[in-house]
Amino acid sequence: MKYSDNYTAMDRELLMQKVQMQMSERRFKHVLGVEETAIALAEKYGASPEKASIAALTHDYAKERSDEEFQLVIRRDGFDLALLKWNNAIWHGIVGADFVQRELGIDDEEILNAIALHTTGAAEMSLLAKIIYVADFIEPGRDFPGVNEAREIALVNLDDVVAYETKHTLTYLIEQGKPIYPKTIETYNKWVAKHI
C-alpha cells in the first residue's frame, strides 16, 4: 500500500521498520496480522484503508516498553494518575498513543484514538476505532474459543462483533478474577447491555 503523506511523513516500509524495532518477532507478526485484517474491514465498512494500515501497524508500538517508562510518561504528560493503578494491558493503548504521536510524528486524532481504545473500547468509537478494536481480536494468528464465530460476525456487522468481543473479554476477566477497567464497563453498557 502506498501512503499519501496525509497522516505520516513515512512510507509504509519505513513505518514498519520503526515499529519492528520496538518489539519481538512474535509481536510484529501479530501486528502484521492486525494490519491485514484492519485493511480488509476498512474496505468492507467504508473506512480509509490507509488510516487502518497506520493505526494497525502502530497499535502495539509501546506494548513491550517497561512499566517504569509508562509510569514516567503518565506522571510527566498529565495523564490521569489513577492510570498508575493499572498495568501494561491498559497502558499500551491509552499511553501508547502518546508514544506514537511523540516518536513517530503521527498526529491524526482518529488514528491516535483508535490506538488508545484498542484494548478497552469505549461507549463512543469512530469507525476506525471499532475496526482496530476488532482486528486486534480476530487477526489470523489468534486462536481461542470463539474467535471463529467473531470472524464470521465481523463479515456481517461491525457493531455486532464489537459487542461479541466486549462480552467475550469481560467474561474472561470475570472468570479470571481480574479487575475491569472502567472504560471496558462503559463499552459493555453501550454495545452489549440490552436497555429497557
Task: Note down, in words, how this protein is organized.
- The structure is a single chain.
- The protein is mainly α and 196 residues long.
- The chain has helices spanning 12-20, 25-45, 49-58, 67-76, 88-94, 96-104, 109-117, 127-138, 147-154, 158-175, 182-191.
> What order do the SSEs take from the amino end to the carboxyl end, as H and E?
HHHHHHHHHHH
Low-confidence stretches: none
Largest sheet: none
Task: Report strand %.
Answer: under 5%
Q: Based on CA inertia axes, which overall geometry fits?
A: globular
Strand-pairing-aware structural class: mainly alpha
Q: What level of helicity do the residues show? A: 55-70%
Between the first and last Cα atoms, what is the distance in angstroms? Answer: 45 Å
- The total count of strands amounts to 0
Rounded average pLDDT: 96
Number of helices: 11
Summarize the structure.
This protein has 196 residues and is mainly alpha-helical. Helices cover 63% and strands 0% of the residues.
Topology overview:
Layout: H1 12-20, H2 25-45, H3 49-58, H4 67-76, H5 88-94, H6 96-104, H7 109-117, H8 127-138, H9 147-154, H10 158-175, H11 182-191
Quick tags:
196 residues; mainly alpha
